Amino acid sequence: MRILAIAEAIGPLAAAHAATALARGAVAAGCPAGNLAAVPLAEAGPGFGEVWAALEGQPLERSITDEPAERWSVPSRDSLAVGVSRLGVEDTFPPPVSSALLGEHLVAELSGGMPSRVVLDLTGTDSHDLGRGFLNAVAGAGLASTELVGILPSDQTDLPLLGLQGATAKAGYAAGLAVGEVLALERQAEATAAELTAAHAAQDDAASLPGSGAQGGLGFAAALLGARLVSGPAYLAETLRLDQSLRRSDLVLLAVPSLDVASEPGPVTDMVLAMAAEAMVPVVGISPVVAIAARELRLRGFESAAAFGPANGDPAAAEQAVSETVSRVVRGWLR
């Protein structure tokens, strides 16, 4: 039996550690190590950075700035992944912050040379300046010579920049602004988009691309520089050729943060279940708590599920509990 062990961060375990614990449990049950593959996944932010660092075999570098914000980076010989996550949420719209922080962090990380690929995590900013601050910060950095990838929140990959369903209108109405105020901001956004497009012509149709409205227009700014816009789970799945691995597998073990009637599946779980269904591979959920009927599990796309129990913040105890639970599950499948 060929088993794919897929995990995002669960409880105190980072995604890579959770995936390894799944695989270790399958081996203990008698599955040959050569028939196993451990696949860590993440949505965005430092969690994405941890997974990318594990895949590149490089350390994740993290620091806290005065803003305050957390900066992270994963430099390697051929690629650079960077992100900034602001600590604290602005409660006004438009928020009085700039996207420059991400650009400044990127430029600082490029001081050692230009890699062949730059992965930009765009999900951690709460600005709404259409990426003007970011573009000003990276001006002259020479990004035209490298492959750019912009990581978007999974729920914003189709968000347009302008229009009634665009970033400004949606955020403005959600903030309780009057129609006149939203229309004024929309006109301002249109003018800014035209100005930035004229100044950065790498991709003239950036304002019309799906995802250009993500993170207050930061997706638009990245697209202007030629970046491909994609969600974190989708990009990791593509990088790892997850679709091919699924077609060669007989069973998927999927670590899920929670499995109960009150919790909705997250972007990673949704993507894996959809891909597994297309490949016609059964999925067994492994979660700290399973409080959901078998019928509901199957409606969500799981064949079954098993709980490994709370680990009370102890990573070593969590790894052991996951491995022991998986071992019991896999023994049943190997009979």
From TrEMBL:
Superkingdom of origin organism: Bacteria
Gene3D superfamilies, sorted: Glycerate kinase, domain 2 (3.90.1510.10)
InterPro entries in UniProt: Glyc_kinase_flavodox-like_fold, Glycerate_kinase, Glycerate_kinase_sf
Pfam families: Gly_kinase (PF02595)
GO biological process: organic acid phosphorylation
A Gene Ontology molecular function term of the record: glycerate kinase activity
Protein's UniProt name: Glycerate kinase
Organism, as annotated: Parenemella sanctibonifatiensis
